[in-house]
Design a protein that fits this description.
Layout: H1 5-13, E1 21-25, H2 31-39, E2 44-49, H3 52-64, E3 71-75, H4 78-84, E4 89-94, H5 108-114, H6 121-131, E5 132-143, H7 147-156, E6 160-168, E7 177-183, E8 191-196, E9 198-200, E10 203-204, H8 206-212
Parallel strand pairs: 1-2, 1-4, 2-3, 4-5, 6-8
Antiparallel strand pairs: 5-7, 6-7, 9-10
Helix pairs in contact: 1-2
């Protein structure tokens, strides 16, 4: 799967400098796991990927990266991983599949990456809660119009939003994504802000460039 803006945004946005063990759910090509390794060279990172070809690609990308000993790829479902795994994580990150009952493409791997047939929201959040340390945090990027449902489902797993950043294509557009951080404790006040990707046509905004510049050669 190609690297998308959603993954780059989430990987650059989530605080990770103090984490010792991080889990990336649905790693695809390994981009989020490798971003965590780049930002925190002291962390151990496990990355789960259901698609066998994608997991092979992720393993190759990790092997060719400067951090081959930090990242471990697991070709399995997060449900099975959650059942068998003996570790808990202080940070869990995920750029989840978000299409439900939508028209599917002929490419099976693309369908798996983009549709939530194999990973419903309630399953994902339950596994996240099971694998999170008591004081840990979890971060996701989801469609903006899914926020209320995610907040509702997360509360069933005793996970509560602490920070939301709404993502807009430009200042003149409504948000199309939201980055969410959850913890087990209810925040007195949720940090709430927004970011625009472009300042004008094909020109990245200063705030987007500042957030992601460590990951783009062109910046």
């Amino acid at each position: 799967m190609k690297i998308g803006t959603d993954a780059v945004l989430l990987g650059a946005w989530v605080p990770c400098s103090s984490e010792t063990r991080i889990l990336d759910i649905g790693t695809g090509s390994g981009i989020l796991a490798l971003m965590m390794a780049q930002r925190n060279t002291n962390s151990l990172i496990d990355a789960v990927e259901i698609d066998s070809e994608a997991s092979i690609q992720a393993e190759l990308n990790v092997h060719l990266s400067p951090w081959p000993g930090q990242v471990h790829i697991f070709n399995t479902t997060i449900q099975d991983f959650s059942f068998a795994n003996k570790y808990n994580y202080s940070l869990i990150i995920c750029n989840p599949p978000f299409f439900t009952d939508s028209l599917k493409a002929p490419d099976k791997a693309r369908n798996t990456a983009r549709h939530n047939d194999t990973l419903p929201v309630n399953d994902l959040l339950q596994c996240t809660s099971n694998l999170l340390t008591e004081n840990g945090k979890a971060a996701f990027i989801i469609p903006a119009d899914a926020y209320e449902n995610w907040k509702f489902e997360a509360a069933k797993q005793n996970l509560y939003p602490t920070h939301t950043t709404w993502v807009k294509s430009s200042e003149s557009h409504a948000p199309h994504r939201v980055m969410l951080a959850f913890s087990r404790s209810k925040a007195v006040e949720i940090i709430d802000n927004e970011i625009s990707i472009y300042s004008s046509k094909n020109i990245y905004s200063p705030e987007y460039m500042e957030l992601t510049r460590d990951f783009y050669l062109k910046f």
